Structures are given as structure tokens and as C-alpha cells.
Amino acid sequence: MSLQSAVLMGIGIYFLMMLWIAYSTKKHETEDDFVIGSRKVGIIPTVASIASGLRDGAGIVVWVGLGFLLGYAGILWLILGLTIGTILLGLYGPRMRDLAAKNSCITIGQMVRHFIGSRTAKYISFIIILFSTLVIAMQLFVAGNLISKIADIAPVFGILFSALVVAMYLMSGGYKAVIKTDTLQFFIILSLIFIPLFIQPKLVDMKDLSTVFAMGTENNIAILIIGVMYMLAGADIWQRIFSAKDGKTIVKSISMFPIFLFIMTLSLMWLGMGARNFVTTTNSDDVLFLLFKSPEIPVAVLAYIAIVIISITMSTLDTYTYLLSSTYLEDFTKYDVKKHKK
Fold first, then answer.
1. Which residues is 277 bridged to in the sheet?
2. Residue 127, exposed/middle/buried by CB under 10 A (0-12, 13-18, 19+)?
3. What is the Cα–Cα distance from 306 to 294, expressed in whole angstroms?
4. The model's pTM
5. What is the DSSP letter of 290?
């Protein structure tokens, strides 16, 4: 079987699974399930949704490229920043979740409006929508370009196809569909930790921990601060907190989150290290895509990597698409999502 056929078949099966999960969710969900998961989302779905939502398409390119050029550069500082953020979030998250439930808030903008004022809420919501739009664009770019390179079609068709699939399962299953698909995508993404069995980095590269400091002090501090601020200011993180079952679920979920994200990031860096055996380039952004042009890598392995990449981009894409739409509908219009669902 050719690379094109294997990858497209795998991606097609993957998309059908996502749609099936969404439509099966629709049959049994309530209005509150559609909007905010009835605020009963458990530990595994919460941590899975946070982790798979944060590990995005742009991050694939960045961390594979860093692994290729600099080894473990940046990973320690990212995880340290996220850990500090989770500690702070654990102190205030449960209380914020209870306040959101008490006041029927499903977005951070609604919380700001209730406790601070509508003008500030508008500013916050506008920033969330702008940021979400940029994140969505990045996911569509990575997924669309991957599909276009493999299927030999124009990137716009790959982008439109990815957007259509997400739109279909969001409209059918809402927030609960996002949580369920993210949970499946979470385990698919985690499985990439076994990539050294198929694309083997040199042992000396894997053991060289000195590369943790390769980016320099200023860059390391910047990555650490980004990790802290993302946990505290990420609107998608707060939406997961608002939907959690209770305070204990929040604390346990965010405590596990840095561990799983470390595994996800490490696997991408190992993929980059392994790519040194097959790819020659000075541009780190090209490494991921050049792997699919290497005749030395088995077709089945490339098809598997493609499915993981699609899982990463789609998990972030559906998270931010829901965040954007819910923020816009709830904070800028009088559209009643529950009424529409009913």
C-alpha cells in the first residue's frame, strides 16, 4: 500500500470515529450536557481535555523542531511553569467552579461581567475571541497542509475538510462531544511516547540532558512565564474548571496535567531527535513535514504519525472552536444556546 493510501485511510477512519462519538453523544445528552457537560465532567475527561487542548498543531512543529536542532531545550522550563500555574490554580479553581455553577456562568466573560462589570467583560471576551481565532487558524494550517501534502491537493481543500468535520460534531454534540473526542484524542497523542521504537534517536542524543539549557537563560525564563500564565489566564482551562464535577476533580486533574503534558512534549522531541537520521535541513519548521518524504521510514509508521498529528490539531481545534462560539454567543448576543438545543 502506498503512503498516500495508508495515511488517507487512517485519517478517514479517524474522522469517522470522531463523528460517531459526537452523534452517539447527541442521542443521550441533555441541554446542560450540550452547553457545559452538566458540570459533571470527571477526572480523566477533564485532564484529557486540558492536556490534548494545550498540545496544539503549532506546538508539534516547534517541539519536533527543537528536538531536531537542540535536543531537550525548553521542555523543563515549560513543565516547571505549568506546574507553578497548576499549584496556584488548585488554590482558587474549586471556588471559582462553585461560583460559576451558582451564577450559571459557562464562560470567563460571564464571570467577569457578574463580578466586575459588563464593559470589562466585553474587553475580556474580545481578547478571548481574537486569541481563539489565531489558535484555530494555526490548527487548520497544520492539519490542512499535512493532508494536502499527502493527498497532493491544494492546502485550502485540506483546511476546509478539517473545518467541516469539527463543525459537524460540534453542532451535533456540543461541549460534551468536545470532552469525549478530546479523551480519545488524549490517548492517541500519549501513544506517541513509543515512537523511539520505530524512529530511533541515537542513544547519545537521548541521554544528553545538558541540552535542557541550550536555549539560554532569557528564553528559558520566557517559556516558564508562558507556562504559568497559560494555566492562570487560559480561557479554555477555566471552561474545563467550570465543567468539572467538583473541587476534588479540579485539584486531581490539574495535578496530573503537567505529567501528561511532559510525556506528550517528550515524545515530540524524541521524534525530532529520530528525524536526524532521515532529514537534512537548517529550518526547524520543515522537519515534521520532511519526514513524510523519507522513503526509509515504513509507510505504516508514517501513517500512524499522521493520525497522531491530526489528533493533536483536531483536539485543539474543537476546543477553541467551542470556546470562540460559546464566548461570542453568550457574551456578545442574546442567543440562548440551551433554548436552541431544546
1. none
2. middle
3. 14
4. 0.86
5. H
